[in-house]
Amino acid sequence: MLRDEPIRTFKARRRVTAGQAVAIERLLPTYGVDVTAPFDRVAVYARSAPLVLEIGSGMGEATAAMAAADPARDLLAVEVHTPGVGSLLRRIESGGLTNVRVAEADGVEVLQDLIAPGSLDEVRVFFPDPWPKSRHSKRRLVSAAFADLVADRLRPRGRLHVATDAGAYAREALRVLADHPDFEVVSRDRGNRPVTRFEQQALDAGRDAHDIVAVRRPAG
Questions:
Q1: What is the CB neighbour count within 10 angstroms for residue 68?
Q2: Which of 75, 96, 105, 188 is deepest in the core (most CB within 10 A)?
Q3: Is residue 10 part of a domain?
């Protein structure tokens, strides 16, 4: 179980701009999710719709763009870095997005504690901390234990979409998902995932993005 693993897969960043701080104070009560309380998706979104979980929404560019293009599905964006939370809240308001909610939390803990088995339509992990040094590789989010947890929370044929600009991480994630009995790797294409500012910086530096899309096999 991931709950027994104390290793953190991220490095927290808390410094916020004045605009981000104002957005958090003003908008989090409306668009935030209380991770200490039971998660009632119908009450949170005021409807019953397929649910997408994004672990590590960054500054929210891709999150907001994909939510705006996919209004039939609800999105729960989980971000541990406070500046990203503030930035996404501003994008939600400016875009008039009603299908996005934000949790400032550890995505693994949200999966374990808030999300019911078989209730997710998709899980997105876009550009997680790469932990490029070999001695730190155990901190990478995508692991066999993580795949176990995601598989349990996805509906049959639900998707896990991983993207990274770290080649070693991509190869490891591909191996984990290809070897997992509950997953079938179906694509290496980015699909409709937009390029974010941070990804463009990686591309400009000569690092290619790698996408892996796997679906949960039906039981039996």
A1: 15
A2: 75
A3: no
